[in-house]
Automatic annotation (TrEMBL):
<dbReference type="InterPro" id="IPR032823">
    <property type="entry name" value="BCA_ABC_TP_C"/>
</dbReference>
<dbReference type="GO" id="GO:0005524">
    <property type="term" value="F:ATP binding"/>
</dbReference>
<dbReference type="InterPro" id="IPR027417">
    <property type="entry name" value="P-loop_NTPase"/>
</dbReference>
<dbReference type="InterPro" id="IPR003439">
    <property type="entry name" value="ABC_transporter-like_ATP-bd"/>
</dbReference>
<dbReference type="Pfam" id="PF00005">
    <property type="entry name" value="ABC_tran"/>
</dbReference>
<dbReference type="GO" id="GO:0005886">
    <property type="term" value="C:plasma membrane"/>
</dbReference>
<keyword id="KW-0547">Nucleotide-binding</keyword>
<keyword id="KW-0067">ATP-binding</keyword>
<keyword id="KW-0813">Transport</keyword>
<protein>
    <submittedName>
        <fullName>Branched-chain amino acid ABC transporter, ATP-binding protein</fullName>
    </submittedName>
</protein>
<dbReference type="GO" id="GO:0016887">
    <property type="term" value="F:ATP hydrolysis activity"/>
</dbReference>
<feature type="domain" description="ABC transporter">
    <location>
        <begin position="2"/>
        <end position="250"/>
    </location>
</feature>
<dbReference type="InterPro" id="IPR017871">
    <property type="entry name" value="ABC_transporter-like_CS"/>
</dbReference>
<dbReference type="Pfam" id="PF12399">
    <property type="entry name" value="BCA_ABC_TP_C"/>
</dbReference>
<dbReference type="InterPro" id="IPR003593">
    <property type="entry name" value="AAA+_ATPase"/>
</dbReference>
<dbReference type="InterPro" id="IPR051120">
    <property type="entry name" value="ABC_AA/LPS_Transport"/>
</dbReference>
Length: 262
């Protein structure tokens, strides 16, 4: 579904991504792991249009999307979340979801005067869709809560809910487990699995929690120093001496450290 071909992203003389080539299969949940500074988030930013590549290209189902801005990719069904959730803190959880779809009638001043009925019908439909999403994510009890009052894990669920308000085809999740307690992380994992199995979502997940990666992801791609180092099942990459060396710098004798949750 996604092909990344020899992508380089340089900042001055430093290559944060250095000739990365990889493929994301349609309908998969692909894990992207690696030590800090490996280039994972920078690669996400290049694929999602936040950063232009220095060279190389990105394809979505054989369409060259290299350098397209995020709003164009949004309309093509490619979405991403962030390490730090970006919510409208003063708005309710339901209202945050209702804001997502583009091209709403109420966005123009002219329609506010002459198409009030259309706007009202559209808002009712969006509210119903938002409530359906919140029920799916098991946070419907928070529909009327201000988003700024949510916990870190609840905000991550809200970000996942945003992808459900549009026709997402592939979703990039950047450290969805950061700052999230284990119970909510399990809830997030359940939602990702259901979206993948029941609705055909394709996911790419950056995460340091190896238990979370092991539960959700196959295949797992490992990056180090801006390059793709290895790819395979979680057990295969954990047994790869090059992967262990990249994480630990000490070889196989410290294998258990890689296997422990981050």
């Amino acid at each position: 579904m996604i092909r990344v071909e020899n992508v380089v992203k340089a900042f001055g003389g430093m290559r944060a991504v250095d000739g990365a080539t990889l493929s994301i299969a349609k309908g998969s949940i692909t894990g992207l792991i690696g030590p800090n500074g490996a280039g994972k988030t920078t690669l996400f930013n290049v694929i999602a249009g936040a950063l232009p590549p220095t060279s190389g290209r990105v394809l979505l189902e054989d369409e060259d999307i290299t350098g397209l801005p995020p709003h164009d990719l949004f309309h093509k069904g490619l979405l991403r979340t962030f390490q730090i959730a970006h919510e409208f803190s003063s708005m309710t959880v339901r209202e945050n979801l209702m804001m997502v779809p583009g091209g709403q009638a109420g966005e123009t001043l002219w329609n506010a005067w002459i198409a009030r009925g259309r706007i009202a019908r559209e808002e009712r439909a969006l509210a119903a869709k938002a409530d359906e999403v919140l029920e799916f994510l098991t946070i419907d009890h928070l529909a009327d809560e201000r988003a700024g009052n949510l916990s870190g894990g609840q905000k991550k669920l809200l970000e996942l809910g945003r992808t459900m308000m549009v026709d997402a085809r592939v979703v990039f999740l950047d450290e969805v487990g950061a700052g999230v307690n284990r119970t909510l992380l399990n809830t997030i994992g359940d939602a990702i699995l259901r979206l993948n199995r029941e609705r055909g979502y394709t996911f790419v997940v950056i995460e340091h929690d190896m238990d979370f990666i092991a539960r959700l992801c196959d295949p797992v791609i490992v990056m180090a120093e801006g390059k793709v180092l290895a790819e395979g099942t979680i057990d295969e990459v954990k047994a790869d001496e090059h992967v262990i060396e990249a994480y630990l710098g000490t070889g196989l004798k410290n294998r258990d450290k890689l296997e422990a949750p981050a």
